[in-house]
Amino acid sequence: MRTHSPDPFIVVSEEEIPVIQNVLKQRLPLSAHEYNMILGKRRFRHDVQVYTLDGDLSENAITLLTTYREDYGVDISISIPPEYIPDEYLKQALIETGTINWDDAFVFVSLPRPLSKMIFEISTVVKKNSTTVNPNYQYMLDTSEALQQDFGNLNEGIEIRPLDKTAGAKFLLDNWKYTKDGTPEYVQKVIEKNPSAGVFVDGKLACGALVNVHGLIGLLYTDNHYRRMGLAQLCMRFLFKEMARMGQVPCSTSQSKNDKSCNFHKKLGMIITHETDYVFHTPYSEAKFNTCT
C-alpha cells in the first residue's frame, strides 16, 4: 500500500487497472456498474478516472471512479468491500480529497446505501450544499442468461440494431425532461462508444436505450404511438446481450417508489442486488430556488 500522498485518493495507473478490475469482479454483483465502468475505460480512456484510497490495490480497496459530463458535472461512483462499514478515516479522506470538488455540480451514481448517509452529511453539514438523495434499487441479469436472448422470431416489420449517434440521441432526448446544455453531446459520445439499442417498426425508430459511461442502462424511451407492443422489453433484452458479449454485467436502477419500473425489471427476469442512492448537488448559484430573496 502506498501512503503519505498529498491526496488520500491516488490515481490508479494504466498498468494497475487490471488489478482493480479483478477486485471489482470479485465483488459482483454488488459492484456491477463500477465493474462495467472500468471495463469501458478502454473506450473512454480520457473520460474515466480511477482512484483508490491510499493507493490500496488489495481486495479491501475503496475504489472511486469519476467521469465528467458536460451537462450534470462529475459522475462519481464508489465501490466498497463487502460488509464494510464507513468510518471516520474514510469520511476525512472524502472531505480532504481534491478528486471531488464539493462546490461544483456532481452526482454520486447508485451509491451503496452504507455510504449514502456519510456523503449526505459531508455535502450538507460540512460543505453547506443543498443536496438531494434519490433512493433506488439496483438490478442485474446473469450474463449467461443475457447471452441466451434470441431475436430470431421478431414480428414482421420489427428490427433491432444499435442507435445512430445523431438520430438516436435526438430520439432519446426529445422527450427526456432532464435535458440540459451539454446533454446532446454527452449522449452522442455514449452512443458512439457504448452499447445502445434501437427498435424499429417499419423502418421508424420506435424505442431506444443506451448504456451510460457509468455502466448502467439508461434513457429507455418508447414513442407514444408504439406503446404496449413489448418494444421496451425487446430493447432491454438486446442491450443485455450486447453488454454480456462485451463482458459487462447487464444492470440498471429504478427509483424505489416507481412500482411500474420495478415491475418492468421483474418481468425482464432481473433481480435486485442491493439498495442504492443517487446523491445530487447543484451549486447554489445554479439552483432554481433558495430560502432567501
Automatic annotation (TrEMBL):
The keyword Transferase applies. Its EC number is 2.3.1.-. The keyword ATP-binding does not apply. It is an enzyme of class 2 (transferase). InterPro entries: Acyl_CoA_acyltransferase, GCN5-like_dom, Glycine_N-acyltransferase, GNAT_dom. Residues 158-291 form the N-acetyltransferase domain. Gene3D superfamilies: 3.40.630.30. It holds the Pfam family FR47. Keywords: Acyltransferase, Transferase. Belongs to the glycine N-acyltransferase family. PANTHER family: GLYCINE N-ACYLTRANSFERASE-LIKE PROTEIN, L-COA N-ACYLTRANSFERASE-RELATED. This is Glycine N-acyltransferase-like protein.
